[in-house]
Protein backbone atom coordinates (compact mmCIF):
# COMPACT_ATOMS: atom_id res chain seq x y z
CA UNK A 1 0.00 0.00 0.00
CA UNK A 2 1.23 3.50 -0.79
CA UNK A 3 2.85 5.33 2.12
CA UNK A 4 0.78 8.26 3.31
CA UNK A 5 1.82 11.61 4.75
CA UNK A 6 -0.31 13.13 7.49
CA UNK A 7 -2.00 16.48 6.93
CA UNK A 8 -0.50 17.46 10.31
CA UNK A 9 2.75 15.94 11.56
CA UNK A 10 3.26 14.93 15.18
CA UNK A 11 6.06 17.52 15.49
CA UNK A 12 3.77 20.25 14.12
CA UNK A 13 1.12 19.18 16.64
CA UNK A 14 3.65 19.49 19.48
CA UNK A 15 4.71 22.94 18.32
CA UNK A 16 1.14 24.22 17.96
CA UNK A 17 0.14 22.79 21.35
CA UNK A 18 3.15 24.48 22.96
CA UNK A 19 2.19 27.75 21.25
CA UNK A 20 -1.39 27.50 22.52
CA UNK A 21 -2.83 27.19 19.00
CA UNK A 22 -4.20 23.67 19.53
CA UNK A 23 -5.64 22.46 22.82
CA UNK A 24 -7.86 19.49 21.91
CA UNK A 25 -7.20 16.22 20.07
CA UNK A 26 -9.99 13.90 18.93
CA UNK A 27 -9.18 10.18 18.73
CA UNK A 28 -11.85 8.48 16.62
CA UNK A 29 -12.74 4.96 15.64
CA UNK A 30 -15.15 4.06 12.86
CA UNK A 31 -18.16 2.00 13.91
CA UNK A 32 -20.26 -0.46 11.89
CA UNK A 33 -22.48 2.33 10.59
CA UNK A 34 -19.45 4.30 9.34
CA UNK A 35 -19.72 6.92 12.10
CA UNK A 36 -16.92 8.47 14.12
CA UNK A 37 -16.91 7.53 17.82
CA UNK A 38 -14.21 8.29 20.35
CA UNK A 39 -12.85 10.78 22.85
CA UNK A 40 -11.77 14.40 23.12
CA UNK A 41 -8.37 14.71 24.83
CA UNK A 42 -6.68 17.70 26.39
CA UNK A 43 -3.84 18.07 23.89
CA UNK A 44 -0.89 17.98 26.36
CA UNK A 45 -2.29 14.78 27.89
CA UNK A 46 -2.72 13.26 24.44
CA UNK A 47 0.94 13.97 23.66
CA UNK A 48 2.27 12.70 26.97
CA UNK A 49 0.09 9.64 27.52
CA UNK A 50 -2.05 8.67 24.52
CA UNK A 51 0.10 9.07 21.41
CA UNK A 52 2.46 6.30 22.47
CA UNK A 53 0.03 3.96 24.19
CA UNK A 54 -3.44 4.55 22.76
CA UNK A 55 -6.62 4.67 24.77
CA UNK A 56 -9.49 2.38 25.66
CA UNK A 57 -13.04 2.27 24.37
CA UNK A 58 -15.93 -0.02 25.27
CA UNK A 59 -16.14 -2.87 22.79
CA UNK A 60 -19.91 -2.37 22.54
CA UNK A 61 -19.09 0.38 20.01
CA UNK A 62 -18.99 -2.40 17.41
CA UNK A 63 -22.06 -4.15 18.79
CA UNK A 64 -24.87 -1.59 19.03
CA UNK A 65 -27.62 -0.48 16.71
CA UNK A 66 -27.85 2.96 15.10
CA UNK A 67 -29.50 4.35 18.27
CA UNK A 68 -26.65 3.01 20.45
CA UNK A 69 -28.81 0.33 22.04
CA UNK A 70 -27.02 -2.78 23.29
CA UNK A 71 -28.39 -5.72 21.32
CA UNK A 72 -27.97 -9.48 21.38
CA UNK A 73 -26.21 -11.74 18.92
CA UNK A 74 -22.63 -10.44 18.77
CA UNK A 75 -19.87 -12.90 19.69
CA UNK A 76 -17.27 -10.21 20.44
CA UNK A 77 -19.31 -8.07 22.83
CA UNK A 78 -22.20 -8.92 25.17
CA UNK A 79 -23.47 -8.82 28.75
CA UNK A 80 -22.08 -12.34 29.18
CA UNK A 81 -18.61 -11.12 28.17
CA UNK A 82 -18.89 -8.09 30.44
CA UNK A 83 -18.70 -5.37 27.80
CA UNK A 84 -14.98 -4.85 28.27
CA UNK A 85 -12.61 -2.57 26.37
CA UNK A 86 -10.59 -2.71 23.23
CA UNK A 87 -7.59 -0.48 22.56
CA UNK A 88 -7.83 2.52 20.25
CA UNK A 89 -4.41 2.63 18.59
CA UNK A 90 -3.69 6.03 16.99
CA UNK A 91 -2.83 6.04 13.29
CA UNK A 92 -0.55 9.07 13.04
CA UNK A 93 -0.87 9.08 9.24
CA UNK A 94 -4.43 10.39 9.73
CA UNK A 95 -3.51 13.33 12.00
CA UNK A 96 -5.13 16.56 10.80
CA UNK A 97 -6.53 19.88 11.92
CA UNK A 98 -10.29 20.30 12.39
CA UNK A 99 -10.89 23.85 11.11
CA UNK A 100 -14.58 23.84 12.04
CA UNK A 101 -13.76 23.31 15.74
CA UNK A 102 -11.50 25.89 17.47
CA UNK A 103 -8.06 24.68 18.59
CA UNK A 104 -8.75 21.10 17.54
CA UNK A 105 -6.92 18.30 15.76
CA UNK A 106 -8.04 14.74 15.16
CA UNK A 107 -6.81 11.34 14.06
CA UNK A 108 -8.29 7.91 13.46
CA UNK A 109 -7.58 4.74 15.40
CA UNK A 110 -7.22 1.09 14.57
CA UNK A 111 -8.61 -1.36 17.12
CA UNK A 112 -6.83 -4.11 19.05
CA UNK A 113 -7.62 -6.43 21.93
CA UNK A 114 -5.62 -6.34 25.15
CA UNK A 115 -3.26 -9.05 23.86
CA UNK A 116 -2.51 -7.02 20.74
CA UNK A 117 -4.67 -9.06 18.37
CA UNK A 118 -6.62 -6.99 15.88
CA UNK A 119 -10.36 -6.58 16.17
CA UNK A 120 -11.40 -8.57 13.12
CA UNK A 121 -14.87 -7.00 12.74
CA UNK A 122 -13.54 -3.40 12.74
CA UNK A 123 -14.40 -1.80 9.38
CA UNK A 124 -10.98 -0.24 9.03
CA UNK A 125 -9.26 -3.57 9.63
CA UNK A 126 -11.60 -5.33 7.20
CA UNK A 127 -10.47 -2.96 4.45
CA UNK A 128 -6.81 -3.31 5.44
CA UNK A 129 -7.00 -7.11 5.11
CA UNK A 130 -8.54 -6.92 1.63
CA UNK A 131 -5.85 -4.49 0.53
CA UNK A 132 -3.22 -6.94 1.79
CA UNK A 133 -4.82 -9.68 -0.33
CA UNK A 134 -4.70 -7.39 -3.35
CA UNK A 135 -1.07 -6.49 -2.66
CA UNK A 136 -0.29 -10.19 -2.90
CA UNK A 137 -1.12 -9.85 -6.59
CA UNK A 138 1.19 -6.85 -6.98
CA UNK A 139 -1.72 -4.41 -7.13
CA UNK A 140 -2.97 -1.42 -5.16
CA UNK A 141 -6.44 0.11 -5.10
CA UNK A 142 -7.47 3.72 -5.54
CA UNK A 143 -10.93 5.12 -4.93
CA UNK A 144 -13.03 8.24 -4.81
CA UNK A 145 -16.47 8.52 -3.21
CA UNK A 146 -19.16 10.96 -4.38
CA UNK A 147 -21.58 11.64 -1.55
CA UNK A 148 -24.93 13.29 -2.24
CA UNK A 149 -26.91 14.90 0.58
CA UNK A 150 -30.12 16.82 1.10
CA UNK A 151 -29.80 20.12 2.93
CA UNK A 152 -32.61 21.60 5.03
CA UNK A 153 -32.94 25.09 6.51
CA UNK A 154 -34.16 23.55 9.77
CA UNK A 155 -31.77 22.66 12.59
CA UNK A 156 -31.29 19.04 13.59
CA UNK A 157 -33.09 19.74 16.88
CA UNK A 158 -36.08 21.36 15.13
CA UNK A 159 -36.26 18.49 12.66
CA UNK A 160 -36.28 15.99 15.54
CA UNK A 161 -39.01 17.85 17.43
CA UNK A 162 -41.13 18.04 14.28
CA UNK A 163 -40.82 14.34 13.63
CA UNK A 164 -38.94 15.16 10.40
CA UNK A 165 -42.20 16.42 8.84
CA UNK A 166 -42.68 19.58 6.77
CA UNK A 167 -39.01 20.48 6.72
CA UNK A 168 -37.82 23.27 4.43
CA UNK A 169 -35.33 22.10 1.77
CA UNK A 170 -32.56 24.55 0.96
CA UNK A 171 -33.81 24.70 -2.64
CA UNK A 172 -37.47 24.55 -3.62
CA UNK A 173 -36.91 23.20 -7.14
CA UNK A 174 -34.51 20.92 -9.03
CA UNK A 175 -31.09 22.64 -9.12
CA UNK A 176 -29.12 19.92 -10.92
CA UNK A 177 -26.03 21.72 -12.31
CA UNK A 178 -27.73 25.09 -11.68
CA UNK A 179 -25.29 27.85 -10.71
CA UNK A 180 -28.19 30.08 -9.73
CA UNK A 181 -29.69 27.41 -7.48
CA UNK A 182 -26.42 26.46 -5.80
CA UNK A 183 -25.63 30.14 -5.19
CA UNK A 184 -28.51 30.15 -2.69
CA UNK A 185 -26.47 27.92 -0.39
CA UNK A 186 -22.93 28.75 -1.54
CA UNK A 187 -21.93 30.21 1.85
CA UNK A 188 -22.41 26.78 3.41
CA UNK A 189 -20.98 24.84 0.45
CA UNK A 190 -17.95 27.14 0.38
CA UNK A 191 -17.38 26.76 4.10
CA UNK A 192 -17.49 22.97 3.82
CA UNK A 193 -15.08 22.96 0.85
CA UNK A 194 -12.53 25.31 2.39
CA UNK A 195 -12.60 23.77 5.85
CA UNK A 196 -12.27 20.25 4.45
CA UNK A 197 -9.21 21.51 2.56
CA UNK A 198 -7.87 22.70 5.90
CA UNK A 199 -8.39 19.17 7.22
CA UNK A 200 -6.20 17.70 4.47
CA UNK A 201 -8.85 16.73 1.93
CA UNK A 202 -8.61 17.93 -1.68
CA UNK A 203 -11.97 19.42 -2.76
CA UNK A 204 -12.74 19.38 -6.47
CA UNK A 205 -16.22 20.80 -6.98
CA UNK A 206 -19.75 21.27 -5.70
CA UNK A 207 -22.91 20.92 -7.75
CA UNK A 208 -26.64 20.81 -7.34
CA UNK A 209 -28.60 17.60 -7.74
CA UNK A 210 -32.18 16.64 -8.59
CA UNK A 211 -33.95 16.31 -5.24
CA UNK A 212 -35.09 19.47 -3.50
CA UNK A 213 -32.11 20.84 -1.54
CA UNK A 214 -29.85 18.08 -2.83
CA UNK A 215 -26.15 18.76 -3.45
CA UNK A 216 -22.85 16.99 -3.88
CA UNK A 217 -19.31 18.02 -2.98
CA UNK A 218 -16.61 15.97 -4.70
CA UNK A 219 -13.06 15.35 -3.49
CA UNK A 220 -9.97 14.06 -5.27
CA UNK A 221 -9.41 10.31 -5.33
CA UNK A 222 -6.75 8.70 -3.14
CA UNK A 223 -5.43 5.30 -2.19
CA UNK A 224 -8.33 3.19 -0.94
CA UNK A 225 -7.70 3.52 2.80
CA UNK A 226 -7.12 7.28 2.62
CA UNK A 227 -10.30 7.64 0.56
CA UNK A 228 -12.35 5.87 3.22
CA UNK A 229 -10.71 7.92 5.99
CA UNK A 230 -11.45 11.17 4.15
CA UNK A 231 -15.03 10.06 3.54
CA UNK A 232 -15.86 9.64 7.22
CA UNK A 233 -14.08 12.86 8.21
CA UNK A 234 -16.03 14.79 5.56
CA UNK A 235 -19.39 13.21 6.37
CA UNK A 236 -19.05 13.91 10.09
CA UNK A 237 -17.63 17.38 9.51
CA UNK A 238 -20.29 18.42 7.00
CA UNK A 239 -22.99 17.62 9.56
CA UNK A 240 -21.15 19.59 12.25
CA UNK A 241 -20.70 22.60 9.97
CA UNK A 242 -24.36 22.52 8.90
CA UNK A 243 -25.43 22.35 12.55
CA UNK A 244 -23.27 25.39 13.36
CA UNK A 245 -25.16 27.26 10.63
CA UNK A 246 -28.57 26.23 12.02
CA UNK A 247 -29.17 23.83 9.13
CA UNK A 248 -29.30 20.07 8.72
CA UNK A 249 -27.80 17.66 6.20
CA UNK A 250 -29.06 14.13 5.71
CA UNK A 251 -27.11 11.36 4.01
CA UNK A 252 -30.05 8.93 4.15
CA UNK A 253 -30.19 6.80 1.02
CA UNK A 254 -33.85 7.69 0.41
CA UNK A 255 -35.09 10.58 2.57
CA UNK A 256 -38.32 11.05 0.59
CA UNK A 257 -40.15 9.92 -2.53
CA UNK A 258 -37.88 11.87 -4.88
CA UNK A 259 -34.34 10.97 -5.93
CA UNK A 260 -32.24 9.27 -3.29
CA UNK A 261 -28.75 10.14 -2.07
CA UNK A 262 -26.11 8.07 -3.83
CA UNK A 263 -22.48 7.37 -3.03
CA UNK A 264 -20.91 6.49 -6.36
CA UNK A 265 -17.53 4.87 -5.75
CA UNK A 266 -14.85 5.31 -8.42
CA UNK A 267 -12.42 2.40 -8.27
CA UNK A 268 -9.22 1.49 -10.08
CA UNK A 269 -6.12 -0.66 -9.64
CA UNK A 270 -2.46 0.14 -10.20
CA UNK A 271 0.57 -2.06 -10.76
CA UNK A 272 3.67 -1.86 -8.60
CA UNK A 273 5.17 0.76 -10.93
CA UNK A 274 2.12 3.00 -10.44
CA UNK A 275 0.70 2.45 -13.91
CA UNK A 276 -2.94 1.57 -14.53
CA UNK A 277 -3.70 -2.13 -14.28
CA UNK A 278 -7.07 -1.53 -15.90
CA UNK A 279 -5.98 -0.05 -19.25
CA UNK A 280 -5.32 -2.33 -22.20
CA UNK A 281 -6.28 -3.49 -25.69
CA UNK A 282 -9.42 -5.43 -24.83
CA UNK A 283 -13.09 -4.43 -24.99
CA UNK A 284 -13.64 -0.79 -23.98
CA UNK A 285 -9.82 -0.42 -23.74
CA UNK A 286 -9.67 -2.78 -20.77
CA UNK A 287 -6.65 -4.94 -20.01
CA UNK A 288 -7.07 -8.60 -19.18
CA UNK A 289 -6.79 -7.65 -15.51
CA UNK A 290 -9.37 -4.90 -16.01
CA UNK A 291 -11.79 -7.34 -17.60
CA UNK A 292 -11.31 -9.82 -14.75
CA UNK A 293 -11.83 -7.05 -12.19
CA UNK A 294 -15.15 -5.96 -13.70
CA UNK A 295 -16.24 -9.59 -14.03
CA UNK A 296 -15.37 -10.18 -10.38
CA UNK A 297 -17.30 -7.11 -9.26
CA UNK A 298 -20.39 -8.28 -11.15
CA UNK A 299 -20.05 -11.86 -9.90
CA UNK A 300 -19.92 -10.80 -6.25
CA UNK A 301 -22.27 -7.81 -6.28
CA UNK A 302 -25.39 -9.63 -5.10
CA UNK A 303 -23.58 -11.67 -2.44
CA UNK A 304 -21.79 -8.56 -1.11
CA UNK A 305 -24.77 -6.21 -1.41
CA UNK A 306 -25.10 -6.06 2.39
CA UNK A 307 -21.83 -4.09 2.40
CA UNK A 308 -23.05 -1.70 -0.31
CA UNK A 309 -26.57 -1.23 1.06
CA UNK A 310 -26.58 -1.85 4.84
CA UNK A 311 -29.97 -0.47 5.93
CA UNK A 312 -33.66 -1.06 5.31
CA UNK A 313 -33.88 2.39 3.75
CA UNK A 314 -30.96 1.67 1.39
CA UNK A 315 -33.04 -0.54 -0.87
CA UNK A 316 -35.70 2.09 -1.55
CA UNK A 317 -33.28 3.88 -3.90
CA UNK A 318 -33.39 1.09 -6.46
CA UNK A 319 -36.19 2.22 -8.73
CA UNK A 320 -36.27 2.03 -12.55
CA UNK A 321 -35.41 5.33 -14.19
CA UNK A 322 -34.15 6.85 -10.94
CA UNK A 323 -30.40 6.89 -11.77
CA UNK A 324 -30.01 4.27 -9.02
CA UNK A 325 -29.23 0.93 -10.69
CA UNK A 326 -31.39 -2.16 -10.65
CA UNK A 327 -29.54 -4.32 -13.22
CA UNK A 328 -26.09 -5.72 -12.54
CA UNK A 329 -24.57 -4.83 -15.89
CA UNK A 330 -21.59 -2.77 -17.00
CA UNK A 331 -21.35 -0.17 -19.73
CA UNK A 332 -19.11 2.60 -21.00
CA UNK A 333 -20.39 5.93 -19.67
CA UNK A 334 -23.82 4.36 -19.17
CA UNK A 335 -25.65 5.63 -16.07
CA UNK A 336 -28.31 2.93 -16.28
CA UNK A 337 -25.76 0.25 -15.32
CA UNK A 338 -24.55 -0.77 -11.89
CA UNK A 339 -20.96 -0.46 -13.13
CA UNK A 340 -20.15 2.54 -15.35
CA UNK A 341 -16.75 2.59 -17.04
CA UNK A 342 -15.47 6.17 -17.15
CA UNK A 343 -12.27 8.11 -17.75
CA UNK A 344 -9.60 7.89 -20.42
CA UNK A 345 -6.07 6.58 -20.54
CA UNK A 346 -4.45 6.22 -17.09
CA UNK A 347 -7.60 7.78 -15.58
CA UNK A 348 -9.80 4.86 -16.63
CA UNK A 349 -11.85 3.58 -13.70
CA UNK A 350 -15.10 1.85 -12.87
CA UNK A 351 -17.86 3.73 -11.08
CA UNK A 352 -19.96 1.53 -8.81
CA UNK A 353 -23.39 3.18 -8.71
CA UNK A 354 -24.98 0.75 -6.24
CA UNK A 355 -24.12 2.31 -2.82
CA UNK A 356 -26.20 5.04 -1.24
CA UNK A 357 -24.87 7.84 0.92
CA UNK A 358 -25.62 5.78 4.05
CA UNK A 359 -22.85 3.32 3.15
CA UNK A 360 -19.86 2.51 5.35
CA UNK A 361 -17.01 3.34 2.93
CA UNK A 362 -14.54 0.87 4.45
CA UNK A 363 -16.93 -2.04 3.97
CA UNK A 364 -18.02 -0.98 0.49
CA UNK A 365 -14.45 -0.49 -0.77
CA UNK A 366 -13.43 -3.76 0.91
CA UNK A 367 -16.22 -5.47 -1.03
CA UNK A 368 -14.91 -3.95 -4.28
CA UNK A 369 -11.38 -5.13 -3.53
CA UNK A 370 -12.63 -8.61 -2.61
CA UNK A 371 -14.65 -8.76 -5.83
CA UNK A 372 -11.63 -7.67 -7.86
CA UNK A 373 -9.41 -10.29 -6.22
CA UNK A 374 -12.02 -12.97 -6.93
CA UNK A 375 -12.18 -12.00 -10.59
CA UNK A 376 -8.38 -12.10 -10.90
CA UNK A 377 -7.87 -15.35 -8.99
CA UNK A 378 -10.70 -17.13 -10.83
CA UNK A 379 -9.71 -15.69 -14.22
CA UNK A 380 -13.32 -14.66 -14.83
CA UNK A 381 -14.48 -13.71 -18.31
CA UNK A 382 -16.29 -10.40 -18.68
CA UNK A 383 -19.79 -10.43 -20.16
CA UNK A 384 -20.50 -8.12 -23.11
CA UNK A 385 -21.19 -4.54 -22.16
CA UNK A 386 -24.66 -3.03 -22.05
CA UNK A 387 -25.04 -0.34 -24.70
CA UNK A 388 -28.71 0.49 -24.11
CA UNK A 389 -31.08 0.91 -21.19
CA UNK A 390 -30.04 -1.57 -18.50
CA UNK A 391 -33.29 -0.99 -16.60
CA UNK A 392 -35.08 -2.90 -19.36
CA UNK A 393 -32.59 -5.79 -19.52
CA UNK A 394 -34.74 -8.67 -18.32
CA UNK A 395 -31.86 -11.16 -18.55
CA UNK A 396 -29.63 -9.26 -16.12
CA UNK A 397 -29.18 -10.18 -12.48
CA UNK A 398 -30.74 -7.64 -10.14
CA UNK A 399 -29.73 -5.69 -7.09
CA UNK A 400 -31.49 -7.37 -4.13
CA UNK A 401 -34.86 -5.78 -3.48
CA UNK A 402 -34.68 -5.69 0.32
CA UNK A 403 -32.27 -5.91 3.21
CA UNK A 404 -33.78 -9.30 4.05
CA UNK A 405 -32.87 -10.59 0.59
CA UNK A 406 -29.34 -9.19 0.93
CA UNK A 407 -28.91 -10.83 4.34
CA UNK A 408 -29.87 -14.23 2.94
CA UNK A 409 -27.38 -13.89 0.10
CA UNK A 410 -24.58 -12.73 2.42
CA UNK A 411 -24.98 -15.58 4.89
CA UNK A 412 -25.23 -18.24 2.19
CA UNK A 413 -22.32 -17.00 0.06
CA UNK A 414 -19.17 -19.15 0.10
CA UNK A 415 -17.37 -16.19 -1.52
CA UNK A 416 -18.17 -13.95 1.44
CA UNK A 417 -16.77 -16.46 3.91
CA UNK A 418 -13.69 -17.11 1.78
CA UNK A 419 -12.95 -13.39 1.41
CA UNK A 420 -13.92 -12.01 4.82
CA UNK A 421 -14.02 -15.01 7.18
CA UNK A 422 -16.79 -16.50 9.30
CA UNK A 423 -16.44 -13.92 12.09
CA UNK A 424 -17.03 -10.95 9.81
CA UNK A 425 -19.90 -12.67 7.99
CA UNK A 426 -21.62 -13.47 11.30
CA UNK A 427 -21.00 -10.01 12.76
CA UNK A 428 -22.53 -8.05 9.89
CA UNK A 429 -25.31 -10.57 9.39
CA UNK A 430 -26.30 -9.88 12.99
CA UNK A 431 -26.25 -6.15 12.31
CA UNK A 432 -28.76 -6.71 9.49
CA UNK A 433 -30.96 -8.93 11.66
CA UNK A 434 -31.01 -6.27 14.39
CA UNK A 435 -32.11 -3.61 11.90
CA UNK A 436 -34.76 -5.87 10.41
CA UNK A 437 -36.16 -6.73 13.83
CA UNK A 438 -36.41 -3.04 14.73
CA UNK A 439 -38.09 -2.22 11.43
CA UNK A 440 -40.52 -5.13 11.66
CA UNK A 441 -41.60 -3.95 15.12
CA UNK A 442 -42.11 -0.32 14.09
CA UNK A 443 -45.49 1.23 13.29
CA UNK A 444 -44.84 3.62 10.42
CA UNK A 445 -46.54 6.83 9.29
CA UNK A 446 -47.51 4.96 6.11
CA UNK A 447 -49.50 2.47 8.18
CA UNK A 448 -51.16 5.18 10.24
CA UNK A 449 -52.26 7.26 7.26
CA UNK A 450 -53.40 4.18 5.40
CA UNK A 451 -55.25 2.48 8.21
CA UNK A 452 -56.19 4.80 11.11
CA UNK A 453 -59.62 5.67 9.71
CA UNK A 454 -60.09 3.55 6.63
CA UNK A 455 -59.43 0.08 7.97
Detailed description of the structure:
The chain has 455 residues and is an alpha+beta fold. It folds into two domains: 10-119, Ubiquitin-like (UB roll) (Roll), CATH 3.10.20.70; 131-446, Glutamine synthetase/guanido kinase, catalytic domain (Creatine Kinase, Chain A, domain 2), CATH 3.30.590.10. It has helices at residues 10-18, 43-50, 123-135, 156-161, 179-183, 186-198, 224-244, 288-300, 305-308, 361-378, 403-412, 414-420, 422-441, 445-451, and strands spanning 24-30, 36-42, 55-58, 85-90, 96-97, 104-112, 140-152, 203-208, 214-219, 222-223, 248-250, 263-270, 330-332, 339-342, 349-352. The strands form two sheets. Strands 7, 8, 9, 10, 11, 12, 13, 14 and 15 form a nine-stranded mixed sheet that branches. Strands 1, 2, 3, 4, 5 and 6 form a six-stranded mixed sheet that branches. Helix 3 runs parallel beside helix 10. The longest helix is centred in the middle third of the chain and has 21 residues, at 224-244. It is globular, with a radius of gyration of 22 Å. The model has no long low-confidence stretch (mean pLDDT 96).
Amino acid sequence: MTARSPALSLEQLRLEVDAGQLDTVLLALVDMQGRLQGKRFHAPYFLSDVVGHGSEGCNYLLAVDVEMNTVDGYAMSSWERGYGDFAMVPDLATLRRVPWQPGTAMLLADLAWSDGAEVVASPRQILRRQLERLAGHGLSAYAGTELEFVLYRDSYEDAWRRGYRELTPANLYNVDYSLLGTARVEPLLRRIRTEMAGAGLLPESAKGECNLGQHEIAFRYADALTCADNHVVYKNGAKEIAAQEGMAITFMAKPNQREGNSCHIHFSLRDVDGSSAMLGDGPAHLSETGQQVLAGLLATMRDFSLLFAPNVNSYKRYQPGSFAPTALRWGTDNRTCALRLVGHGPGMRVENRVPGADVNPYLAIAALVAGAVHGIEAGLELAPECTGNAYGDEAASRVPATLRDALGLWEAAPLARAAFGDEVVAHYANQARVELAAFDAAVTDWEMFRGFERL
